[in-house]
From TrEMBL:
Name of the molecule in the record: Dephospho-CoA kinase
Any GO molecular function: dephospho-CoA kinase activity
Lineage, highest ranks first: Bacteria, Bacillati, Actinomycetota, Actinomycetes, Micrococcales
UniProt xrefs under SUPFAM superfamilies: P-loop containing nucleoside triphosphate hydrolases
Gene that encodes it: coaE
Function: Catalyzes the phosphorylation of the 3'-hydroxyl group of dephosphocoenzyme A to form coenzyme A.
Length: 198
């Protein structure tokens, strides 16, 4: 079972690559989905987040108010570190459970862990291959504004809150350049799949 880490900065096209690999037959495990699962109402993780950051990060429904939490942590590196100390261990445990389940279900599965914060949290795990989706920061800022409705300042803050591109590129075994057309990204992803199963 090859275990592939797929990472990239915000709006880098990582999800497009993950979807294409899934179409080919990969088992894609989404770190963001795991984060949402471990932060569900009633979870220990959500209780700890509320205790650390206050009730203002909870919606009236009792769910995490992601926008309110983002407003606190994206502009404060120390707050981000406190949040990560709560969330990362739970995500690590649940992701490992899902890797093990994928292997148990299909011994020769290609498992792709779609993980935005690889450099920050999981770079030393025993990956068979690290794939980085890459587009220049200016391209990603434009995508955030056009596709997600952010202001230029919001886009810049989100990009600045992540590790610099150079740190992601330094750990890459494979870089998929997503700055061109969708067809270009798809062709590079298809070539990666052939490498994985060849």
């Amino acid at each position: 079972m090859p275990l592939i880490a797929l990472t990239g900065g915000i709006a880098s096209g990582k999800s497009t690559i993950a979807r294409r690999l899934e179409e080919h037959g990969a088992v894609v495990i989404d770190a963001d989905a795991i984060v949402r699962d471990v932060q569900r109402p009633g979870s220990e993780v959500l209780e700890r987040i509320a205790a650390e950051f206050g009730a203002q990060v909870l919606a009236p429904s009792g769910e995490l108010d992601r926008a309110a939490l983002a407003a606190v942590v994206f502009s404060d590196a120390a707050a981000r570190e406190r949040l990560n100390a709560i969330v990362h261990p739970a995500v690590r445990s649940e992701s490992q459970r899902r890797f093990d389940a994928a292997l148990a279900a299909q011994e020769d599965a290609v498992v792709v862990y779609d993980v935005p914060l690889l450099v920050e949290a999981r770079v030393d795990d025993p990956w068979d291959l690290i794939v980085v989706a890459h587009a220049p920061a200016a391209v990603r800022a434009d995508r955030l504004q056009r596709l997600r409705g952010m202001t230029a300042a919001q886009a810049a803050d989100r990009i600045a809150a992540q590790v610099p591109d150079e740190q992601r590129l330094a750990i890459a075994d494979v870089v998929i350049d997503t700055s061109g057309s969708l067809d270009d990204t798809t062709a590079q992803t298809d070539a990666l799949w052939r490498r994985l199963v060849g």
